Amino acid sequence: MSVNNQIKDVTDRIIKRSEKTRRIYLDRMDAQIRRGVHRSALSCGNLAHGFAACAPAEKEKLSDDITPNIGIITAYNDMLSAHQPYKDYPDLIKEAAREMNATAQVAGGVPSMCDGVTQGQPGMDLSLFSRDVIAMSAAIGLSHNMFDAAMYLGICDKIVPGLVIAALTFGHIPAVFVPAGPMPTGLPNDEKARIRQLYAEGKVGRDELLQAESDSYHSPGTCTFYGTANTNQMLMEIMGLHIPGSSFVNPGTPMRTALTKEAARRALAITALGNEFTPVGQVIDEKAIVNGMIGLHATGGSTNHTIHLIAMAAAAGIQITWQDMSDLSDATPLLARVYPNGMADVNHFHAAGGMGFMIDQLLNDGALHEDVKTIWGSGLHVYAQEPKLDGDKIHFVSAPKTTGNDKVLAGTDAAFAKTGGLKLLKGNLGQSVIKISAVKEEHRFVEAPAKVFHSQDEMQDAFKKGDLEQDMIAVVRFSGPKAIGMPELHKLTPPLGILQGRGYKVALVTDGRMSGASGKIPAAIHLTPEAVDGGPIAKIKDGDMLRLDAEKGTLEFLGDQAEFDARPLATQDLSSSHHGLGRELFAGMRALVSSADKGANALGEIF
């Protein structure tokens, strides 16, 4: 199988662009492999500290160099539904390791915050930076040099990208990512959206809203809409870091338990002590990253990954751009309709054939690189299958060749759209990205006067006062990574949706962030340069005519360009957003962070 020419051309230019940094990365990993990760590198005192808490039998195994030891990095906490199921995973992994005469240790924990809890709250200003804190936390856990492989337990928005960055930093050892799965289906997504809009209009109260939200997010497991968390799981599978078919199996089921133990067995099978050594630095190469981007487009996934994939790739010495993503979107059919790009949820997607069906379709269509290395073996075709349970044993069968629900998951011959719907917008205001897979065609072109706000709260207040009853392009600035940490701005979706429903032409332009939960409103997001970096967005005034054309890929100021260029930059006192709820601790990251199109990286230059 070979990819089509459009995808090959993008892959080739990524390989060429990344030649120097990728070589530096691989040389570093090769040197570390030669040095070894075996415990003989530790002094007796080092090693004694490393296994002091272990049982005698485990100490005996850890004393030699021939027994593999797994380091577990966990994002467990019992407040967040997606991560609560991880409580018992270390015991399952240790049990599987003992059965293979091996050992496993919890190497460390990483923070896991939930954007659903912090949405519209001060804590959201820490969300994006938590990705890099997670990467550093995982690195500390693995720095003890006790481990032949690592297993990463994480699900949600910044957690998986942070864990991937850490895994690639330790790219000389294998990495297996272990999902916990989505909660069962709750309140239908269209009903949840209806109640949210009624609340925004003041037609229902807080009690009704809370009941609807509680009926939607109701049990352990990941939220079931197709936001960043579930996009993460898709990425880990299509990039070869999950057990095939494991991404969307519900928590607390026999299959989920069996897959977790299978993941541990696989981690042990691919260490340097066996015959299938598969260090993660070799799994995640340019072709795997392209496959990830193809999966993002084919499923209509989270726009957060226009930032995260750049940062994840950079950790492996691979340089990708928004232009790469946009070009790949043009070459990728949209095969999934999962909320907010449809009314179904990820459970419906999984039941319709899920990842195995989709990967099989894309491979047969020449839309994925088949010739990649994965934790499950060579070639992506090994992911065109799904697990079945026979007692407590797993076996794998070929994925279905036809969809189980053509309203949720389509074959490439009946795709919902010819492209993935992600576009790069360019023009005299900078560059940004927009996801149009859920935006109706009649809403993809908006030419209207600007209404400028310096925060999402300002815009919310204007809506409540009735000041936005007009055609407009809302400009929300001073929300970028350097300004306040680039929080998500989903509080703006309901009022903009109401205005659109009333017949007004509306759009959003912002240097802030949205995610896979963005929907029917055309939103030019992640605009760079951001306002505090001297970006043109800081010169826009109320009443300026702006044009957003998602089909042509343009975002423009339409007035006198010379007069616009001569304008002073607007300023804003952001000090109130730099303290409280821990935000003062992140001043260094705000000062160091790169622009959104460079991955909003607050870790500094790696290469």
From TrEMBL:
Residues 408-600 form the Dihydroxy-acid/6-phosphogluconate dehydratase C-terminal domain. InterPro entries: 6-phosphgluc_deHydtase, Dihydro-acid_dehy_C, DiOHA_6PGluconate_deHydtase_CS, ILV_EDD_C, ILV_EDD_N, IlvD/EDD_N. Residues 68-380 form the Dihydroxy-acid/6-phosphogluconate dehydratase N-terminal domain. It catalyses: 6-phospho-D-gluconate = 2-dehydro-3-deoxy-6-phospho-D-gluconate + H2O. Pathway: Carbohydrate metabolism; Entner-Doudoroff pathway. [4Fe-4S] cluster binds at residues 156, 223. Belongs to the IlvD/Edd family. Catalyzes the dehydration of 6-phospho-D-gluconate to 2-dehydro-3-deoxy-6-phospho-D-gluconate. This is Phosphogluconate dehydratase. It comes from Maritalea porphyrae.
